[in-house]
């Protein structure tokens, strides 16, 4: 996928005036936030689980080489095969090799963000293999040839009429005059169409929410059951997973699973949480004959030991984007690559370069809600700040911002001058704004006031007030 | 060789070489001990209440439960459910000895096929290995006696579960699996597949409105068999 992150500002402007998207955002935002809040409130141990989850992931990352080798040994022992891939291109080639060896023409797919990251669908298509997304949301966006706009609700930006139009265009085997009375009719039609694909597929490709070192298992979490059909019916199961999905034991996974669904959809537990360990065993009447894990690094090992290491704790629940005012205003596509929202603003520059994605960590109000809802306590705003620093150091920040930052820095390093200037500005603004209490327009800040009013200061600075109140407090003997 | 490259990169960035033997031994010990995290208090209940919590949670997640007094009444309960739901009396059933031993002959109108499910099956009967009260979740490990397709392909999935197999938390269900299974292939306890199932299949992908019956079963019905005597009488 060719990133459009460099044109983030343009994308965001277009998103703000996209009526369909805005309708979808209005509908979706409160839904996710309320459901998560209710699920968290119903589990008094949630905070304790968050802290334990954070420690489990930190422990795993500190010993990642050990746990990866243990996990890989256990996959092999169960009859599976691990394909270590340093880059996205290695991973694409590995998947193609497995498909070719199996003589595959059709691959069904469960939902996987790694699959988006490495762009496997287009690659397989170019090599004569049809990849069929089976998660309902992924299926509809595949029909529209667009990327997901959210990591767990990939098609939230579409409205019912979009679904109907795409189904009519794609499912030409069905009567053209059929009527969709309710959402259920759409679901039933997709179920029928995809059931045939599940049965016809030669290869099933899924992601992994976790890899378990102790047992060599991969774990998927779904509500539809599509991931399970994908990995159960075809002869070959390919798991796409990145190195940071690892946890030591089933008990560790249980802690993280208690956090995942609640943070994501506000469910206590998703409908299907499935642990896969190797291929079909002797006596089994179903299940794949081959089990492969395509294990991807793609820049993640380079995050270890840096200020971005904490990002590797991410379990892809999407709570950060569901609570982000910026994401809530523009949706996911504006971010221009696979991972949107706060987690994307931190991860995308690591994966495609800060020169491509430097806009993303700047698209933040630093309100801190993402960090406060993150089940893994990832300091997302802090890491966005690190990216801003790196962007500045590498002279990627536009000249206009650099000049203004330089101007501000000059004052900030001279406290007396700074206070003098602020006092003068506060007085002037207080004088001119005393009538209405706010400014509709301000010189040099036209684009800021273009979207909101600036409240007028009362004429006194914080420092002056603080000094005055402090004196009074001392005077009263407190 | 990518494996060596990736491991070397990890060690380089963690500023160390391969773990010294004593540290690796500590990690092996942690794997062996598999310590538990915090267990939510909600499932720490007396037996009868724990089972009631399981039932409540299944129903909250759109599953249904019928409680029967003993194994001999299971075929009757299944026949009754099928009739009430207006479902056909052809069933595919897991080749599990406990299920096969049930007195199906008393219900001659039920047509049972034993084996894995096919796409044409409308109703399946699975054997429940264990269940978790905390969230109303079934644990269904795969095996010759418990094919995975029975959890997925039919529109209506029925699971027969003994009440004594209901535990409070996931960790207790893992303990059962660790204690009771030994795999001839791996020497470990994990079968090829373990499904934790909480209610029927669903999707909220269309306008974030929940609809049941996405790709898996539209209905999940649990026949809960009282094998603990008075303890589950409520």
Strand content of chain A: 5-15%
The tally of strands of chain B reads 12
Indicate the CATH architecture of chain B. 3-Layer(aba) Sandwich
CATH superfamily of the domain at 43-298 in chain A: NagB/RpiA/CoA transferase-like
Sheet with the most strands of chain A? 6 strands, parallel
Number of helices of chain B: 6
Terminal CA distance of chain A: 63 Å
Summed up:
The complex is a heterodimer of chains A (478) and B (234). With 478 residues, chain A is α/β, with parallel strands linked by helices. Chain A contains 23 helices and 12 strands.
Topology:
The complex is a heterodimer of chains A (478) and B (234).
Chain A lengths: L7 H9 L2 H23 L4 H17 L1 H14 L3 E5 L2 H14 L4 E4 L3 H6 L1 H7 L3 E4 L2 H8 L16 H11 L12 H18 L2 E4 L3 E3 L4 E6 L3 H7 L3 E7 L3 E2 L2 H15 L7 E5 L13 E7 L22 H4 L2 H6 L10 H12 L1 H4 L1 H4 L6 H5 L6 H14 L5 H14 L2 H19 L4 E2 L6 H4 L4 E2 L6 H14 L3
Parallel strand pairs in A: 1-10, 2-3, 2-4, 4-7, 5-8, 7-10
Antiparallel strand pairs in A: 5-6, 6-9, 11-12
Chain B lengths: L1 H12 L7 H13 L13 H14 L3 E5 L5 H11 L5 E4 L3 H4 L10 E4 L8 E5 L2 E3 L4 E5 L14 E7 L3 E2 L2 H11 L12 E5 L4 E2 L7 E2 L6 E7 L9
Parallel strand pairs in B: 1-12, 2-3, 2-4, 4-7, 5-8, 7-12
Antiparallel strand pairs in B: 5-6, 6-9, 10-11
Describe this structure in words.
- The complex is a heterodimer of chains A (478) and B (234).
- Chain A is α/β, with parallel strands linked by helices and 478 residues long.
- Among the domains of chain A are: 43-298, NagB/RpiA/CoA transferase-like (Rossmann fold), CATH 3.40.50; 413-475, no CATH class.
- Chain A has helices spanning 8-16, 19-41, 46-62, 64-77, 88-101, 113-118, 120-126, 136-143, 160-170, 183-200, 226-232, 250-264, 319-322, 325-330, 341-352, 354-357, 359-362, 369-373, 380-393, 399-412, 415-433, 446-449, 462-475, and strands at residues 81-85, 106-109, 130-133, 203-206, 210-212, 217-222, 236-242, 246-247, 272-276, 290-296, 438-439, 454-455.
- Chain A has a 6-stranded parallel β-sheet, with helices on both faces.
- In chain A, a hairpin with a 4-residue loop joins strand 5 and strand 6.
- The longest helix of chain A is centred in the first third of the chain and has 23 residues, at 19-41.
- The mean pLDDT of chain A is 93.
- Chain B has 234 residues and is α/β, with parallel strands linked by helices.
- The longest helix of chain B is centred in the first third of the chain and has 14 residues, at 47-60.
- The model of chain B is unreliable at 230-234 (pLDDT under 50).
- Chain B has a single domain, classed as Rossmann fold (3-Layer(aba) Sandwich), CATH 3.40.50.
- Chains A and B meet through helix 2, helix 3, helix 4, strand 1 and helix 8 of A and helix 1, helix 2, helix 6, strand 9 and strand 10 of B.
């Amino acid at each position: 996928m060719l990133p459009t992150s460099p044109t983030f500002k343009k994308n965001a402007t277009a998103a703000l005036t996209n009526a369909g998207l805005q309708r979808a955002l209005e509908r979706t935002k409160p839904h996710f936030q309320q459901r998560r809040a209710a699920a968290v409130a119903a589990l008094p141990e949630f905070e304790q689980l968050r802290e334990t989850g954070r420690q489990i992931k930190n422990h795993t990352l500190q010993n990642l080489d050990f746990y990866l080798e243990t996990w890989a040994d256990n996959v092999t022992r169960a009859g599976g095969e691990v394909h270590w891939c340093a880059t996205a291109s290695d991973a694409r080639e590995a998947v193609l090799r497995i498909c070719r060896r199996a003589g595959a023409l059709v691959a069904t797919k469960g939902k996987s963000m790694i699959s988006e990251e490495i762009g496997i669908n287009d690659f397989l298509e170019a090599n004569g293999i049809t990849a069929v997304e089976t998660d309902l949301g992924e299926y509809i966006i595949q029909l529209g040839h667009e990327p997901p706009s959210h990591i767990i609700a990939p098609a939230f930006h579409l409205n019912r009429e979009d679904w109907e139009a795409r189904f009519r265009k794609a499912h030409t085997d069905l009567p053209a005059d059929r009527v969709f009375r309710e959402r259920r009719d759409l679901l039933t039609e997709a179920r029928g169409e995809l059931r045939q694909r599940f049965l016809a597929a030669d290869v099933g490709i899924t992601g992994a929410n976790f890899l378990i070192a102790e047992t060599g298992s991969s774990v998927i979490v779904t509500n539809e059951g599509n991931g399970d059909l994908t990995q159960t019916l075809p002869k070959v199961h390919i798991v796409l997973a990145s190195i940071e999905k690892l946890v030591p034991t089933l008990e560790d996974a249980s802690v993280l699973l208690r956090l995942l669904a609640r943070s994501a959809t506000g469910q206590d537990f998703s409908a299907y949480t499935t642990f896969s360990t190797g291929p079909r065993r002797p006596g089994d009447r179903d299940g794949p004959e081959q089990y492969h894990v395509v294990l991807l690094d793609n820049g993640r090992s380079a995050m270890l030991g840096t200020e971005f290491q904490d990002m590797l704790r991410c379990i892809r629940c999407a709570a950060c984007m569901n609570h982000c005012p910026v994401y809530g205003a523009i949706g996911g596509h504006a971010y221009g690559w696979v991972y949107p929202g706060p987690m994307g603003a931190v991860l995308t520059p690591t994966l495609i370069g800060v020169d491509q994605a430097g806009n993303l960590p700047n698209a933040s109000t630093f309100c801190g809600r993402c960090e406060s809802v993150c089940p893994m306590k990832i300091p997302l705003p802090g890491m966005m700040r690190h990216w801003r620093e790196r962007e500045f150091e590498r002279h990627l920040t536009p000249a206009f911002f650099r000049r203004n930052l330089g101007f501000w820095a000059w004052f900030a390093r001279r406290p007396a001058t700074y206070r003098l200037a602020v006092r003068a500005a506060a007085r002037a603004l207080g004088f001119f704004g005393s009538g209405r209490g706010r400014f509709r327009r301000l010189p040099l800040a036209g684009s800021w006031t273009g979207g909101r009013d600036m409240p007028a200061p009362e004429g006194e600075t914080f420092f002056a007030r603080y000094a005055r109140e402090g004196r009074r407090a001392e005077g009263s003997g407190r | 060789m990518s494996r060596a490259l990736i491991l070397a990169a990890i060690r380089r960035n963690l500023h160390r070489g391969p773990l010294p033997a004593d540290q690796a031994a500590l990690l092996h010990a942690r794997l062996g001990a598999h310590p538990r995290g915090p267990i939510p208090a909600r499932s720490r209940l007396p037996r009868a209440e724990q089972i009631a919590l399981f039932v409540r949670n299944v129903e909250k997640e759109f599953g249904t439960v019928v409680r029967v007094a003993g194994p001999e009444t299971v075929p009757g309960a299944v026949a009754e459910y099928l009739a009430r739901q207006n479902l056909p009396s052809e069933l595919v059933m897991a080749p599990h000895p406990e299920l096969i031993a049930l007195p199906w002959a008393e219900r001659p109108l039920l047509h049972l096929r034993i084996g894995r499910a096919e796409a044409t099956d409308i109703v399946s009967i699975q054997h429940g290995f264990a269940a978790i009260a905390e969230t109303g979740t079934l644990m269904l490990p795969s095996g010759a006696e418990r094919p995975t397709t029975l959890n997925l392909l039919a529109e209506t999935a029925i699971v027969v579960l003994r009440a004594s197999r209901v535990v409070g938390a996931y960790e207790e269900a893992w303990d059962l699996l660790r204690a009771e299974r030994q795999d001839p292939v791996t020497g470990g306890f994990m079968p090829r597949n373990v499904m934790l199932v909480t209610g029927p299949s669903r999707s909220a992908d269309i306008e974030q409105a929940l609809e049941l019956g996405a790709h898996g079963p539209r209905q999940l019905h649990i026949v809960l068999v009282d094998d603990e005597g008075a303890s589950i009488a409520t």
